[in-house]
Amino acid sequence: MKSFTTNAQFDTINQLVQHLDQDESSFFFASPNNQVRIFAFGCQKSWSNWQDIDSSKYSLIVGGQDFDTARSITPHQMSSYWFAPKISVTWKKNQLKVEIIDSIDWSSWLKSVHTNTEIDNQILSVNDEFDWLERVTQLIDTLKNDQELKKVVFGRQRLITLSEPMTITKLWSQLIEQAQSYRIVLKQKHHYFVSLTPERLLSVENSQVQTAALAGTAARKDDYQDESKIANTLLKSNKDRQEHDYVTQNIVNKLAPFVKKFRYSTTPGILFTPQLLHLYTPIQATILPGVNFLTLARALHPTPALAGLPQQSALAYLRVHEQEPRGLFGGALGYFTNENQGELAVGIRSMVISGRQIQLFAGAGILSQSQTQSEWQETQAKFSTMESIIQEVISK
Ligand SMILES: C=C(O[C@H]1C=CC=C(C(=O)O)[C@@H]1O)C(=O)O
């Protein structure tokens, strides 16, 4: 491996973006407000499960772990994929730090991109799960009658078919400007998983652990209803507070064996995205000596913001009642280093692109006091994070 820094030229970024499309294995990760941006390309070694990774051997490992490894995926989905890249580009303070295996020449590799001609693209069809409302009503009944099951985060999928293939180069300018969220792309062969998630699963830097509870949601209204009014109603909603408190408590319990000095507030704040408001509790702690990044990640994943409570009963319910497996939707995506640093986000507000087909994902935390129609509206608003970007690209 050789390593050097270079300036973040506009051309360089453009070429890196084209390589995201061109290379068989590629990855992009930007944390909110661009604190960290990483591009990674080419596979030295890959893993299909984070259980098998020995993180001491490679300076950087990138990728994602699916939501539920026990469920196999359909052709529209992507499953766990981790790789140690041949080329990585880490972008901090306007400087690119490049790490590249000895056999590749950086400037010839960078230039080796072919430009594609732009062809008009159209949406040919949009297919929804027709019986989702019925299944949510059935779930609410189950939650009212079941003594044990408290919460199930129920997923929905929507399949969009386009007239032409979608690429990251086409989506890039729309994706990158959503700087309030993570922006994540993971490519394996002909599939891309793309996420604009606001939800951090875990970050570890200099022994400081950061995670967050994000659950309890209100959609922004078309009539531009005052933001603070929506936030106040959300903070006062018993259903959302209960949904949120379950998540906070569960995260703290799962982390407790591995950390010390917890810091978090017992009253949630609000996290704003362009489409939604969420109850939000940042949780900080200090990692205990000898604890590995992946051990923490495995302990946290999946949080009850994505599965439910109790976890095993919620997962069992989802395996039977969600129409399609999730693959990386609700999974853990990001990077980690052999110095026990790294960051993972939760793969929501996401889609899988496979040529002309785009599979969109959304889910909502269902409790016994949930209203079917408002959960439907909430998932519509969650779909719109990605849908509005696709629309922008198509109508250009
Ligand atoms: C499952 C999703 O959101 C989760 C994360 C934040 C808030 C949630 C909620 O309020 O239901 C969900 O638990 C999704 O966006 O598809």
Question: What attributes does this structure have?
Answer:
396 residues; alpha+beta; Anthranilate synthase; 20 strands; binds the ligand C=C(O[C@H]1C=CC=C(C(=O)O)[C@@H]1O)C(=O)O
| Small molecules (ligands, ions, cofactors) in the structure | the ligand C=C(O[C@H]1C=CC=C(C(=O)O)[C@@H]1O)C(=O)O
Q: What level of helicity do the residues show?
A: 25-40%
* CATH C-level label of the domain at 123-165 and 204-287 and 304-323 and 351-395: Alpha Beta
Residue windows where pLDDT falls under 50 for at least 5 positions: none
Please characterize this protein's 3D structure.
The chain is of the alpha+beta class. It has a domain at 123-165 and 204-287 and 304-323 and 351-395: Anthranilate synthase (4-Layer Sandwich), CATH 3.60.120.10. The protein has nine helices and 20 strands. A hairpin with a 4-residue loop joins strand 17 and strand 18. Helix 4 (168-176) packs across helix 9. The protein is globular. It binds ligand ISC.
Compile the SSE list and pairings.
Elements (H helix, E strand, L loop, with lengths): L1 E6 L2 H13 L2 E6 L6 E11 L12 E6 L15 E12 L2 E6 L5 H6 L11 E6 L3 H14 L5 E12 L5 H9 L6 E6 L2 E5 L4 E6 L2 E12 L7 H10 L1 H18 L3 E6 L4 E4 L3 E12 L5 H8 L7 E2 L1 H11 L10 E6 L4 E5 L3 E5 L2 E10 L5 H24 L1
Antiparallel strand pairs: 1-6, 2-3, 2-9, 3-5, 4-5, 4-17, 5-6, 7-8, 8-16, 8-20, 9-10, 10-19, 11-12, 11-18, 12-15, 13-15, 14-15, 17-18, 19-20
Helix pairs in contact: 3-9, 4-9
The structure holds ligand ISC.
Protein name: isochorismate synthase
GO molecular function: isochorismate synthase activity
Pfam families: Chorismate_bind
